Amino acid sequence: MSALKKEYKRITVKSLIEMKSLGEKISMLTAYDYTMAKIVDGAGVDVILVGDSASNVMAGHETTLPITLDQMIYHASSVVRAIDRALVVVDLPFGTYQSDSKEALRSAIRIMKESGGHAVKLEGGKEIKDSIKKILNAGIPVMGHLGLTPQSIYKFGTYTVRAKEEEEAIRLIEDAKLLERLGCFALVLEKIPASLAQRVAESISIPVIGIGAGGGVDGQVLVLHDMLGMTQEFHPRFLRRYMSLHEKMTSAISEYISDVKSSEFPNENEQY
What residue ranges define each of the domains in the chain, with the CATH number in brackets? Predict the structure, then answer.
């Protein structure tokens, strides 16, 4: 078995922990519909996150807050039907777990039963530990999320880098260790200093997946629409655009319109 790469026919939570122990980086992308998930899974990504970022990229909302549990289940169901290999993690949306651990459990159970997802993701540390414990006690895998937590945007007031000050950094490390002790199988760190993210990854045994958290963690996640260049307004330092799909799609659609207007489409070979 290679120290860098092992072939997995199906990714599970145990696979991710093994990947960390082997030093193999974990790839994670978002997806929200069947067609895109089919492509992402076929390309070999390890984890598909059905993120509440669907609120932004699919519905056009300014924040992740408006998306509902029913809508998350709809998106997750579409993704699950497409995949053969990836682990599918589903965000619990705002308002479904923060203040009531019983409501958190009901929300997580609905996602697992109605979408077929493999795990849920929650934002926060010790303030939501009761919700995490209840969900884990029901046998549902939980991925944590610390650093910039978009569901708390109105509390922070900005999307700037978190935990730059030592006091907040210490709290973040404590929360990461707490999530590991509670039984979370992995942790997302969003938009924090790279040196802090590496400290966290080295201090806990569960995989740490970063977004805007540098390369010293165990894996990376990006929003699919951002990395493909479908979105145009979002330009954070951590985002690498692997395509300019917005330009390519605009060009193709413009060409189609032109061909229709000129009667170039359909031609004799494209009709019955």
Answer: 13-241 (3.20.20.60), 244-272 (no CATH)
